[in-house]
Amino acid sequence: MQFDAADLSELIVLCRVEIERHCEHLGRLDSAIGDGDHGANMRRGLEAVYRERDAISALPLPAALERIGLVLVMSIGGAAGPLYGTLLMELGRGMSAGEDDEADFAAILARAIAAVARRGRSGPGDKTLLDVLYPVQAEVAGHAAPARIAECARAAAQATEMMLARRGRASYLGARSVGHEDPGASSCALLTMTICHYLKEHAPS
Q: PANTHER family given for it (predicted)?
């Protein structure tokens, strides 16, 4: 589907609502293996984007994604801000190069995820939001339907529960990090699922 200003504005609203609904849950996940502020930080970031939604939605999609990324970097704080910001800014930069079909988007997403990995100095299996992003990108590259991508994101986040954290504050816990879902993976899955459900509902019949 082709995004217009109304679509982007609606998605900003929906993502804000979803993070607000799960704010306490994300905080509890982070309290188990981090400092407990991931839910509050994500809520603050999505609120900041929501406040700018009219100006953001008036931009071409690539520029809008870059702007959202910048707002998240400035407002989320902690490790999540730079990671989410890098993802969205790199997506915007890739799309601004004129690549807009499905195959090109999969490649743009792969490059954006690689930038996130470099920024966080992490990779697959490190128990981070990358453990959602990598399988989601694989589904996108395989032309999966939005419902399948959403389910993939949910399952990937849940799979981090049994991973040993190798990056960030959670890595200090060693084996004690096993048995807890990663909060960054969880918030990434929530946002991915929200976007996918919107795409499914608004796909051309």
A: TRIOKINASE/FMN CYCLASE (PTHR28629), TRIOKINASE_FMN CYCLASE (PTHR28629:SF4)
90 alpha carbon, distance to own chain's centre: 13
Q: Which residues, at least 6 apart from 153, have a Cβ–Cβ distance to it below 8 Å?
A: 132, 135, 136, 188, 189, 192, 193, 196
CA distance 157 to 155: 5
Name the residue with tokens 């090109």.
104
In angstroms, rounded to a whole number, what is the distance separating the alpha carbons of residues 180 and 31? 10
Give the tokens for residue 175.
């084996």
Minimum mean pLDDT range among 21-30, 73-82, 175-184, 192-201: 175-184
pLDDT tens sequence across 70-81: 999 999 978 899
Which residue in the block uniquely carries the two structure tokens 């470099």?
A: 118
| 3-state SS class at 150 | helix
pLDDT for position 100: 52
pTM of the model: 0.92
Please give the domain boundaries of the chain with CATH numbers for all domains: 5-202 (1.25.40.340)
* Cα gap 108→92, rounded to integer Å: 9
